[in-house]
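Help! Submission page says 'invalid entity' but I think these are all valid:
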Amino acid sequence: MEKGTATPLTKPLRCIVKLGGAAITCKNELEKINEENLRAVSIHLREAMMSGEIVDMDWSKRPEKADVSVDVDGISDQITLESSNFVVVHGAGSFGHFQASKSGAHKGGLDQSLVKAGFVATRISVTSLNLEIVRALAREGIPSVGISPFSGGWTTFQRNVASADVTTVAKTIDSGFIPVLHGDAVLDHSQGCTILSGDVIIRHIAEILKPKYVVFLLLTAVDEEGSWRVVNPAPKSMNEQVEITVAAHDTTGGMVTKISEAAAIAKLGIDVYIVKAATDHSLKALKGEVKGKIPDDWMGTAIRFMRK
Amino acid sequence: MEKGTATPLTKPLRCIVKLGGAAITCKNELEKINEENLRAVSIHLREAMMSGEIVDMDWSKRPEKADVSVDVDGISDQITLESSNFVVVHGAGSFGHFQASKSGAHKGGLDQSLVKAGFVATRISVTSLNLEIVRALAREGIPSVGISPFSGGWTTFQRNVASADVTTVAKTIDSGFIPVLHGDAVLDHSQGCTILSGDVIIRHIAEILKPKYVVFLLLTAVDEEGSWRVVNPAPKSMNEQVEITVAAHDTTGGMVTKISEAAAIAKLGIDVYIVKAATDHSLKALKGEVKGKIPDDWMGTAIRFMRK
């Protein structure tokens, strides 16, 4: 690690939130945002981290309007814009996936024209998604600031994080902003380049900034049929030190992978919640209302380190 | 300086190019790109730094089309995508200016709601311009990669650069890409935040990466009436160590400021050319064709360090 190994925060980090790519984009349409879900998630995030008046912080041109649509002069200093310390990290969904998989940018090899062009194309796609998410959050009054991992000096070695500027993330939080990072195409010291996933970014930031809890907002974390149940104590087949509250009939490989990523975070002593985006359950998780005893009617997956 | 004080490049940096905000945007219309100029400048940049076939590297959705419009499968490994080492830095023009000036984000004071909101709004605006410029360059076959100074850990102290991750800029170049930076809203250690101009970024990168020459592409660097003349040797009123080839009837304060910024770069021993964007003169400057004796018919301003 070149940078960011010791980065104290003035105020502790409350939460890292992952916005799953599939939850905020339309999976089957190239570069299409799921506006409804993104708006709902943005409102939930504001409710979880802020109180008081809503100040629209996206003063850029909107598609339907020729000029600024925000009443900037109405922003008085009576309004306080305090937010608790959150970090947002989002996936790519239908942004970046086509470009990366078509070019093989995740496998490296920048001497190949297709990989090099695909690397450029992938970064264009994921940064355009980041911009749209930052704008959506800013419109809801969240002082969001985009931090692109490539720009922030995140690199990998054999696809593990080799360098990362977590100092900038910490300074951004300390200045009262909400950093918004994303899965990105980055340089890799062994194979030239790769794709750094949002989940790996979260684990790395969690290790250094020690949030109280981490929430993964996914498209389908909960079986709508209500087939989830609380498994307590932890099943012996899982790591014994980690308590997992998990669905009985979870068949998706993606979910298992997600749980093992999350388990690595839980082992740091950080509670992890995996929950369907834009639901009452996700709002509860974001607010930290499932931090202690999990309510009986809460639907989602909780992963916790068991102190012996 | 926390980072990036010694950053060697495998191959020397040939040129840093500033795309003036006024040259690539429409000054009097909020967040409007000057498509014609941007396209012409992109073509010139490609001609100056690359040869061979053009590979479109912007695979994102275009406004007029629902799906990918690039023939990705046609990108064969017979095509070489070598470019000489350039860095592009652009200004803000009609992006960011409204947001920054309306909020006073350049004067700092993040405890004020208006400044905080304006900081968020400014970053949204300038990063959306950066994305458009990266896309325009990528469409012309330039392997451009956006690096946002805020994300790259650029901060200021009393509005001078306090930290900057030039290492990432260097690694990007060494990996065969063209970094595209921009004037940005950044954190300031004395006043909370400020606006870091593209010109200051260029001077800082030039100090560390020592380009052979620097080109400022402006909207109106040349008086169309042809009232420019070569002043040689340098007038006594200027720094005697710097030779300036300057217009006789330059009355713009902006131009004088630009020249003094440029003079600071020239003092590092780096030739600086200030020239009207999207002209034959700017193409000559970008190609380095005015590096030695300046052609009689070349219109622009050259600033050079005179070795005694």
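Support: the input was valid. A stray whitespace character was the problem, and the output above is from the cleaned input. Chain A has a mean pLDDT of 86.
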